Amino acid sequence: MSERMSERMSERMGERTTERSSTTTTTADANRGPDDGVPALLSVTDLSAWYGEARVLTDVSVTVAPGEVATLVGRNGAGKTTLLRSVMGLHKQVKGTVSLDGSDLGRRSPDARARAGIGWVPDDRGIYASLSVEENLMLPPVVHDSAWSMEKVYDHFPVLAQRRDFPGTKLSGGEQQMLAMARVLRMGSRLLLLDEPSEGLAPVIVQRIGEIIREIKAQGVGVLLVEQNVAFARSVADRHYLLAQGKVVEHLSNDALAARESELLTHLGM
Ligand SMILES: Nc1ncnc2c1ncn2[C@@H]1O[C@H](COP(=O)(O)OP(=O)(O)OP(=O)(O)O)[C@@H](O)[C@H]1O
C-alpha cells in the first residue's frame, strides 16, 4: 500500500434550551448507558472542541449503549460532524473525555480508535474510486472477532455481491453508502459513527439503509448517527440529542421527538 493510500486509509478508518425536554443530559447520565444497568459502549463526557480560537462544541456529553442507535440532530453548523470527528480522533483541538467500553481513549490516533472498534462512515462515504467493491471491502484490517465474513456482507448487501467487480466510480450513491457501512462491519467495528447516511438518496434506498441500521442494532452494534432527516432518524433511533450552537440543548426519547416533529422542523430548520 502506498504511503498516500495508507494515509487515506487511516483517514477513512478514522474519519473524515427549553425545559420541555423529557430527559436532559447531565454529566452523570453520560457515564452510564441509557438503560439502568447497561454500561455504555461509548461515553463522551464534557467534550469541548475548537477550530483555532473558535469554540464549536461546549461540554457535550452523550452515550451510546451496545445495540442502541442515538442520533445527533440540529441545524447546519451545530457541531454534529465535529463531534463525530472528535470521537474518531480526527479532530484534535478538544478537551474532555471519550471512552469506549469504559476505557478513556485519551489522545489515541484515529487508526488506534478504528482498531479498538470504532467505525467511521463519513458523509462523502470514502469509497476508493479506483478499487473494486470487493477490494474496498477487503482493504481495511479485521479488528475484532465480531467482524463480518464476506459471505455475511454479501448476504446482507446483495447489491454489493452483484457489483463486486465494479469500480467505486460505477456505484450509485446508495450503493456507495451500503459499501461504506459494509466495510466497517467487515472490520468488526462495534460502534458505527454514521454521518448523514440518508443524504441525497432516493426514498427506497433510504428505507433499505434504515432496515440495515435496524439489523446492525439487533446484532448489538451501537450507532451514533448524524441525521437531518427527522422522519428517518425517528424510524431507526432510540434516543436523540438535539445540538444547537455546539451544546446539547435537549435529550429526547423517540416519542418526544415524534410529538415535536413539526415544531422542530419549523423552528430549527431541520
Ligand atoms: N475546518 C473548519 N475550520 C473552521 N471552522 C469549521 C471547520 N469545520 C467546521 N467549522 C465550523 O464549526 C462549526 C460546526 O461545524 P460542523 O460541521 O461540526 O457542524 P454540523 O452540525 O455538522 O453542520 P453541517 O451539517 O453543516 O456539517 C460551524 O460553525 C462550522 O462553520
UniProtKB/TrEMBL annotation:
Residues 42-270 form the ABC transporter domain. One of its GO terms (molecular function) is ATP hydrolysis activity. Residues 1-19 have a biased composition (Basic and acidic residues). The keyword NADP does not apply. It comes from the Bacteria. SUPFAM superfamilies: P-loop containing nucleoside triphosphate hydrolases. Residues 1-38 are annotated as: Disordered. Keywords: Amino-acid transport, ATP-binding, Nucleotide-binding, Transport. PROSITE patterns: ABC_TRANSPORTER_1, ABC_TRANSPORTER_2. Belongs to the ABC transporter superfamily. This is Amino acid/amide ABC transporter ATP-binding protein 2 (HAAT family). It comes from Humibacillus xanthopallidus. The lineage of its organism: Bacteria, Bacillati, Actinomycetota, Actinomycetes, Micrococcales.
